[in-house]
Amino acid sequence: MFYSKIEEIFSVPFNTSEWDYSQLTNPDEFQWKVGVTPFSNWQFIVGSWVTYFTIIASLELFMKSRQPFSLRIVSAAHNLFLCILSALMFGYGIFYYYERFQTRGAGECFCTSDESSLNGRLSYVTYIYYLSKFDELLDTVILALKKKPIIFLHWYHHAIVILMVWSWLEDGNMYAR
């Protein structure tokens, strides 16, 4: 009885059964919806933070009495992947902004009241950018395994950028309602 009350107070409802993975296959039809778009729940972000901080703190403890790993190939491969992904997102973003500029004008590239412009390809690219922030958490894991110093700003930056990009998607969608 006591434990069920504690569990009820501290539990965070999180339902992934509503996630619609078909949104990931068609950028033209992409529409950000918290609880429907995969990984869009705020609970997922909080869970990622808890997992991230726990893993990094545990790795730093684990590595205290060990020699650093040499992860040059892993680090290079991870950075190459992120560079290629960033270049693709940049290229698509420029292309879609140029397309919007051609069809809607300069004003619509920076500020819009048109609900339809908050969905589709540009929002999809922003969503992929959001997902890439979770992959970037591996940077800290690599640093911990190499026994490199990890300052608070590094932890904070990786955690807060996820929330920041989530808010771009959510706030843009909120203003369209």
TrEMBL record:
Pfam families: ELO. It catalyses: an acyl-CoA + malonyl-CoA + H(+) = a 3-oxoacyl-CoA + CO2 + CoA; a very-long-chain acyl-CoA + malonyl-CoA + H(+) = a very-long-chain 3-oxoacyl-CoA + CO2 + CoA. InterPro entries: ELO_CS (IPR030457), ELO_fam (IPR002076). The chain crosses the membrane at residues 42-62, 74-98, 150-169. It is found in: Membrane. It is a multi-pass membrane protein. Belongs to the ELO family. PANTHER family: ELONGATION OF FATTY ACIDS PROTEIN 1-RELATED, FATTY ACID ACYL TRANSFERASE-RELATED. This is Elongation of fatty acids protein. It comes from Acaulospora morrowiae.
